[in-house]
Specification:
By secondary structure, the chain is mainly alpha-helical. It is built from 13 helices and 5 strands. It has 2 domains: 203 residues, Rossmann fold (3-Layer(aba) Sandwich); 89 residues, Tyrosyl-Transfer RNA Synthetase (Orthogonal Bundle), CATH 1.10.240. 40% of the residues are buried. The structure holds adenosine-5'-triphosphate and L-tryptophanamide.
């Protein structure tokens, strides 16, 4: 069971497609790095994913893929708790309570809500709107200290903090106030097709993203096609050269080279050489992950064991916070 002195980490990812290089460099890589030092809870947030319409058969397959990929990238179930959000009912329960302490105006200001409402104008449902209260519940249930995410989630974490402070202000100390951890060069990996936009697993254009399970040839082809500019100088300048700067961020995150080192390495060389180097570095990074994934996917019983044990532990830990909350707001104890 949990080691009390370790700080708590919580993070989640939606099974709304297949994980991309953006998910990996922005979030998942940090998840792996944190597992030795912290008590970590990592969730496939399936409840969140249905705020956008999903095909049930595809969703089922994606969730299993995500769980296998968690293990393939190096998350160790001995060190962290891996589970599906829908298997742990405390998340939906606390989300309801927090909805009653979250203001309409606050939710209206969320950029993810505005973006997704525009993208899915035919399905602006209440779940899409109250998405951040469920996300706040995810974090607050575990008395989380640290939340590793990409920069797009900063606003949601701020809101969760505000909700927690508000609740604590009314009822006394109940929730720990969590803090976001955002990586330096890979906080926002952009689309290869439109480098002013975030790389996103639910993008319609398959050339806009690299999937963790893309084959090496596809990876190299996608980088070759990546939108850049006509200057033909590898130079970091996100404003004037979003495409090349995005590729430099990727190359830097994968090889640990600084932007200066990358500029020197490709001084006098064309974009062709640079794109090939980025493609090869990414393909090399993903090769061992992919073979590990193939191995794990063959053992469905093992996968089921991991997410079942994960959910049991997550329920045990999170229910302590939920019981505290029920008591604080004035609900009476159940007699069974
Ligand atoms: P969707 O396209 O369905 O909105 P997504 O690809 O944006 O999904 P999420 O499941 O919302 O991915 O995010 C999981 C984690 O990955 C979050 O911490 C998020 O900040 C991070 N992340 C997602 N895309 C990127 C990106 N392009 N660059 C850096 N981090 C990212
Ligand atoms: N909203 C996040 C996914 C997510 C999450 C969380 C991240 C759901 N719950 C709790 C960190 C902590 C997203 O869309 N990327």
């Amino acid at each position: 069971m949990s080691e009390i002195n370790k700080k708590i980490v919580f993070s989640g990812i939606q099974p709304s497609g297949e994980p991309t290089l953006g998910n990996y460099l922005g979030a998942l890589k940090n998840w792996v790095l944190m597992q030795d030092e912290y008590e970590c809870f990592y969730s496939i947030v399936d409840l969140h994913s249905i705020t956008v319409r999903q095909d049930p058969a595809a969703l089922r397959a994606q969730i299993k893929k995500f769980m296998a990929l968690f293990l393939a990238i190096g998350l160790d179930p001995e060190k962290c708790t891996l589970f599906c959000q829908s298997h742990v009912p405390t998340h939906a329960e606390l989300a309801w309570i927090l909805n009653c302490y979250t203001m309409f105006g606050e939710l209206s200001r969320m950029t993810q809500f505005k973006d997704k409402s525009q993208k899915h104008a035919d399905n602006i449902n209440a779940g899409l709107f109250t998405y951040p209260s469920l996300m706040a519940a995810d974090m607050l249930l575990y008395q989380t200290d640290v939340v590793p995410v990409g920069i797009d989630q900063k606003q949601h974490i701020e809101l969760a903090r505000n909700i927690a402070v508000r609740f604590n202000g009314i009822y006394g100390d109940t929730f720990k106030i969590p803090e976001g951890v955002i990586p330096k060069t890979s906080a926002k990996i952009n689309s290869l097709a439109d480098p002013t936009k975030k790389m996103s697993k639910s993008d319609e254009n398959i050339n806009s993203y690299i999937l963790l399970l893309d084959k090496p040839d596809d990876i190299i082809r996608k980088f070759k096609r990546a939108v850049t500019d006509s200057e033909a100088i590898v130079r970091y300048s996100p404003e004037d050269k979003p495409g090349i700067s995005n590729l430099m961020n990727i190359y830097s995150a994968v090889t640990s080279k600084t932007h200066d080192e990358i500029e020197k390495e490709f001084d006098g060389k064309g974009y062709g050489d640079f794109k090939l180097a980025v493609g090869e570095a990414v393909a090399d990074l993903l090769k061992p992950v992919q073979s590990e994934y193939e191995r794990i996917m063959k053992d469905k019983d093992y996968l089921e064991k991991i997410y079942s044990e994960g959910a049991q532990k997550a329920y045990y830990v999170s229910n302590k916070t939920l019981s505290k909350v029920y008591k604080k707001v004035g609900f009476i104890k159940k007699g069974f």
